Amino acid sequence: MAMLKKNSDGPVRIYRAKNIKDLVIGVFRGGVSAEREISLLSGENVIKALRSKGYKVVDIDLKTRDEKVILKIIRDNFIDIVFITLHGEFGEDGQFQRILEVNNIPFTGSGSEASFLSMDKIQARRVLEENNIAVPQYWVEEEGGFKFSPSDFPLVVKPHYAGSSMGVTIVKNNSQLKEAIKIAKKYSSQTIVERYIRGRELTVGIIRDEALPIVEVRFKKDFFDFSSKYEDNQAEFIVPAELPPEIYKKIQELAYNVFKVLGCRGLGRVDLRLAEDFKPYILELNSIPGLTSHSLLPLAAREAGLDFSQLCEEILKDALETFNFIL
Predict the structure, then answer these.
(1) 3-state SS record for 212-268
(2) Catalytic option among 80, 93, 194, 271
(3) Can 54 be counted among the known catalytic residues?
(4) Which pLDDT tens digit goes with each residue over 116-162?
(5) Is 88 a catalytic residue?
(6) Taking all residues of the chain, what is their mean pLDDT, rounded to a whole number?
(7) Residue 25 near residue 79 (C-beta atoms within 8 A)
C-alpha cells in the first residue's frame, strides 16, 4: 500500500512499487442501484481489459452502502486505487466517491461534488443555464402535476436522478403524461418534463480533457431507451457523425465546456439533441458512462484510435495523475 506524504501542493502518494503494473487495482462493479446488471457488465469488461495488459486487478462485486464494510474490502485486498464502474445511485451520484475522498483513497473519474451535480438533472440544468448553455425547455413536476395544451406535445418525462434511460417516456397527450410520471417516480422523488427536440441524437465522449469523435444514434423507436442501449439492436451508430465541419467542431467544444462547467474529470459522455436548425441542446452528462459491448464511449474511443484496453489505461492514468502518484 501507499505512504502519504504532504507537500505544499497537497498529498502525494509515494509507492514502493517500481511501475504502474505493481499497483493493485480494485474494480468496483455491481452496486445497489437499478443499474446493477449494466454495472456488472461494465466492470467485467474493464477487468478483462486490464488483466490482458498485465495489471493486478481485484474484482469487487459491491453489494453494500456500508462505509466500514467498503473500507475493510479495500484494506483486506491491499487495493491501491479504485476503478469505479458503478452506475446510478451510490456509484455515479457522489456518495461512493465521498467515502473514498474522506479516507484518502484514489479512484477513477470525477469527484463527489461533480458526480452528484451530473447525476441530478435538475441541478445540472440550472448550472448549465447559468453558463448560457442551452437545454430543452423543462418543468419540474410538483404535487398535483401539470396539464399541457395539445400543441405542447410531444414531451419527454424522466426521473431527475437516474441513468441508462430508466423511467424515461415520450408522451403525446395528457393521459399518457400522468402514467409516465408514475413510471418516473419509481426511480426518483422528482420528475422532469421537457420539451421534445425534433432533430438528431448525438453523444460526445470525453477522455482526459479531450473530446472524442461524435457518435450519432439513429433508432427505430422514439428515443434511445434502455432496451435499445443494452438488449436489442434497434439503434444504428454513425461515428464520426455526418455533420458540417464547423457544426462538428462547435459540438465537440460545447461538450467539453459542459464537462468542465460541471467540474468533471477523467471520463464522461455528454448527450445532446441537435435541432433541425442545427442548434444543440444538452440533455445530460454521464460521469461514469457504460463500458459494455453496446456502450458509446468505447465506440467513440475506437474511432479515435484507442482499443478498449487502451481506453481503460487512459482512465487509470488520469486517476494516477489526479492523485499525485509517484512511481
Answers:
(1) CCCEEEEECCCCCCHHHHHCCCCEEEECCCCCCHHHHHHHHHHHHHHHHHCCCCCEE
(2) 271
(3) no
(4) 999 999 999 999 999 999 999 999 976 556 778 888 899 999 988 77
(5) no
(6) 89
(7) yes
Q: Of the residues 167, 284, 287, 295, which is catalytic?
A: 284
pLDDT value of residue 262: 98
What is residue 258's three-state secondary structure? Answer: helix
Catalytic, 16? Answer: no
Instruction: List, for residues 272-292, the tens digit of each pLDDT value.
Output: 999 999 999 999 999 999 998
Cell of 54: 498485465
The domains located in the chain, with CATH, are 3-108+307-326 (3.40.50.20), 137-196 (3.30.1490.20)
Q: Is 286 a catalytic residue?
A: yes
Q: Is residue 247 a contact partner of residue 278, using CB atoms and an 8 Å limit? A: yes
SS3 40: helix
Q: Which of 33, 115, 228, 286 is catalytic?
A: 286
Would residue 230 show up in a list of annotated catalytic residues for this protein? yes
- Catalytic annotation on 290? yes
pTM of the full structure: 0.90
